[in-house]
């Protein structure tokens, strides 16, 4: 969830949860993202994590707020260290084979392939999977709902979706149905 307001982010989570989504990454670009994460983490029916974490202090604050996983767009070893100290899974971002190897060496539980769509899409994930068959890869960035199966067939363990799932303008204007339509399309394609 990446929105310009805390209220819009909270509304998007609520709508998507009502459609059946259970896992949410609250990015730290959301105003008061840590506070929203703390609020949502109180819900037993949701798995809430922190995203766009590039600083170990922010990782620590998110973990203290209840984050069950932490995601970084890059290889940040200090973020991985902070997460591992608390037994919290960490996903570090990578695009190249060198970065994937660095993410694994830093302690990533999952390597976030970012930005996936502009890096070559499913064929890029398939190429990485060929040389890193045991590394869990999760592509994010520009993934359209119809491409989920192609990413899974390429070897992705999951996909992350943001803007293609949550149209911030639609949420802000209260257009719940357009968000629900995309959510239903995704849930019809893959388990979330």
Descriptive report:
This protein has about 190 residues and is α/β, with parallel strands linked by helices. The protein is about 45% helix and about 10% strand. Strands 3-4-5-6 form a four-stranded parallel sheet. Helix 2 runs parallel beside helix 3 and helix 3 (about 55-65) packs parallel to helix 4. The protein is globular and about 45 Å long. It starts with 5 loop residues before the first helix and ends with a helix.
Report the mean per-residue pLDDT as an integer: 96
- Assess the beta-strand content as a share of residues: 5-15%
Number of extended strands: 6
Main sheet characteristics: 4 strands, parallel
Q: Please give the radius of gyration in angstroms.
A: 16 Å
Order of secondary-structure elements: HEHEHEHEHEHEHHH
**Overall 3D shape:** globular
Uncertain segments: none
What percent of the residues sit in helical stretches (DSSP H or I)? Answer: 40-55%
Q: Which strands sit side by side, in order, in the main sheet?
A: 3-4-5-6
Distance between the termini: 14 Å
Looking at how many chains there are and whether they match, the oligomeric state comes to single chain
Give the number of helices: 9
Briefly note the structural class of the backbone: alpha/beta
SSE inventory with pairings:
Elements: H1 6-19, E1 23-27, H2 33-41, E2 47-51, H3 56-65, E3 70-71, H4 77-85, E4 90-94, H5 97-106, E5 110-113, H6 121-131, E6 137-139, H7 148-153, H8 168-172, H9 176-189
Parallel strand pairs: 1-2, 3-4, 4-5, 5-6
Helix pairs in contact: 1-9, 2-3, 3-4
């Amino acid at each position: 969830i990446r929105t310009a307001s805390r209220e819009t982010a909270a509304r998007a989570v609520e709508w998507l949860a009502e459609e059946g989504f259970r896992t949410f990454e609250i990015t730290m670009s959301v105003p008061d993202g840590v506070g929203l994460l703390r609020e949502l983490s109180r819900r037993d029916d949701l798995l809430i994590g922190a995203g766009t974490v590039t600083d170990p202090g922010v990782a620590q604050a998110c973990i203290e707020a209840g984050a069950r996983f932490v995601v970084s767009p890059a290889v940040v070893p200090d973020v991985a260290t902070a997460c591992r100290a608390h037994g919290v899974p960490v996903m570090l971002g990578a695009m190249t084979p060198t970065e994937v190897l660095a993410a694994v060496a830093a302690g990533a539980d999952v390597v976030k392939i970012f930005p996936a769509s502009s890096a070559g899409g499913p064929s890029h994930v398939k190429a990485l999977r060929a040389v890193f068959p045991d590394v869990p890869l999760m592509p994010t960035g520009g993934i359209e709902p119809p491409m989920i199966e192609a990413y899974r067939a390429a070897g992705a363990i999951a996909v992350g979706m943001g803007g293609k799932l949550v149209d911030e303008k639609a949420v802000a204007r209260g257009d719940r149905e357009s968000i629900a339509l995309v959510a239903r399309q995704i849930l019809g394609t893959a388990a979330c």
